[in-house]
Amino acid sequence: MAQLKAFSSCSSTNLLFHGSRKEPARTYDKIHCSRKASLEELGVKASEFCGHAIVHTSTNFGLACNKLVIQAVMASNTEPVTSAMDGKVLRGKLNKVVLAYSGGLDTSVIVPWLRENYGCEVVCFTADVGQGLQELEGLEEKAKASGASQLVVKDLKEEFVRDFIFPCLRAGAIYERKYLLGTSMARPVIAKAMVDVAREVGADAVSHGCTGKGNDQVRFELTFFALNPELNVVAPWREWEITGREDAIEYAKKHNVPVPVTKKSIYSRDRNLWHLSHEGDILEDPANEPKEDMYMMSVDPQDAPNQPEYVKIGITEGLPVSLNGKVLSPASLLSELNVVGGRHGIGRVDMVENRLVGMKSRGVYETPGGTILFTAIRELESLTLDRETMQIKDILALKYAELVYAGRWFDPLRESMDAFMKEITKTTTGSVTLKLFKGSVNVTGRESPYSLYREDISSFESGKIYDQADAAGFIRLYGLPMRVRAMLEKGI
Questions:
Q1: With bands split at pLDDT 50, 70 and 90, how would you rate the model's confidence at 83?
Q2: Does residue 267 sit in helix, strand or coil?
Q3: Which residues contact 222 (CB under 8 A, 6 or more apart)?
Q4: What stretch(es) of the chain map to CATH 3.40.50.620?
Q5: pLDDT at position 92
Q6: Which of 94, 199, 214, 270 is least crowded, fewest Cβ atoms below 10 Å from its Cβ?
């Protein structure tokens, strides 16, 4: 196995960087180091696509970086690998890559780019998480026309709602007071399926089209790391020379890739069964009001029906199970509520959030069904949870949301917190009736066999369980610290 040895002019210590013992030696691009380059930067440049800080090459070289002389000593005589497409030197050699594929311009050009730069077979993967049938039409033809060997499509809607959305709903996870985590929850279910497909087709790598500025790259890759740390990861937007749409179109034409003819939206959107997000264009200025024609899942509340609509949500152990008395599957329940909520202009959120990578981002979200469900769960908990439990749950919900937003779905901490949420919501069973009217969701009734609310105690009438005269002693004891402080200040 290749080793990179570093010799310092001021130290006799040798630093060794070892690559994966399971990977054969491979050839990479030449590496150039400026005077300020560090060993860590050198390792990253040498192997951006696989996460091993190691240069695999058949050439000895020396680099002077701030008095540090770095010499690569190789144990392999592997010759540089050339691409079967045009004879160029490869960035690395992979066997088969599973690409998260949407059929848009970016993922269409990633297919030939992977083949050209890694000499690999490309298997495209598309997850159906409720983005709409129109986005799934003609994908196989597009993928194969771009150079993919096959397209794998999996219907993940039920798994997405049951195993990802509903746990967040039960936990009460909301990021930075507003965001209901629509994209954050979708990425790990897609990445999980990609790992499964990679195993099924015998791939040694996975790839995505996320940019180097966003949160999604982290969400995808942390899931890959958690579920199969041996998979190589290729992120073209962090490697290639393509800088924008025009470059991508030129690359597509050069490689005979059919450019998608659909009209490009002025907004960057992400849609799934839980929500629809909008970013970009005029939204990049937080002072601008969103245009009404931007919205796609909900009507303008002003144009919503003039009569309210009542819905009854059945809940079992913290999870919704029925709508108006009809038991539905998780995905079906959410789908119906999206239609109902959208009709009344429910679930619009405009916010400026802090991205994981450090920058602020303005986004507008439509989450009609999710907003209704969050309201229903919270209102039922007002009956079934005591004060201390509710406070702890709310505190943990903030951290839970942060972990999900940051892509740490498969982190043991989130899983442990989820076990806590599942345990304390065992009695959150019952039903909630809500009134939907012109963008608002208001509770009108709550019922639970485990309700901690007792009318005979809460009534203003005196009773045997609660004697109002007992309050005097309670107030004196509860207010004792305040009374002592006041006495001290007044010299009493």
A1: low
A2: coil
A3: 406, 407, 408, 409, 410, 411
A4: 96-254
A5: 86
A6: 199
* CATH of the domain spanning 268-385+425-447, picked from 3.30.310.180, 1.20.120.140, 1.10.238.10, 3.90.1260.10: 3.90.1260.10
Domain ranges in the chain with CATH number 3.90.1260.10: 268-385+425-447
CA–CA gap between residue 419 and residue 205 (Å, rounded): 32
Instruction: Note the maximum CA span of the chain.
Output: 93
Catalytic annotation, residues: 106, 187, 216, 268
Tens digit of each residue's pLDDT (9 = 90 or more) over 306-362: 999 999 999 999 999 999 999 999 999 999 999 999 999 999 999 999 999 899 999
Pair of tokens at residue 175: 């990021």
Is residue 338 within 8 A of residue 273, CB to CB? The reply is yes
- CA distance linking residue 363 with residue 179, whole number of Å: 9
Q: pTM here?
A: 0.81
Give the mean pLDDT of the chain. 85
Report residue 405 as tokens.
């937003």
Q: Would you state the structure tokens that stand for residue 147, as one six-digit string?
A: 């150079």
Strands of the sheet containing 309-316, edge to edge, are 326-327, 319-323, 309-316, 430-437, 440-447
Give the residue from 160, 172, 177 showing the smallest Cα distance to 428: 172
Q: Are 46 and 28 in contact (CB under 8 A)?
A: yes
Amino acid of residue 282: I
pLDDT, tens digit, 9 for 90 and up, residues 87-116? 567 888 999 999 999 999 999 999 999 999
**What spatial distance separates the first Cα and last Cα of the chain, rounded to whole Å?**
82
Amino acid at 373: L
What CATH number has the domain spanning 96-254? Answer: 3.40.50.620
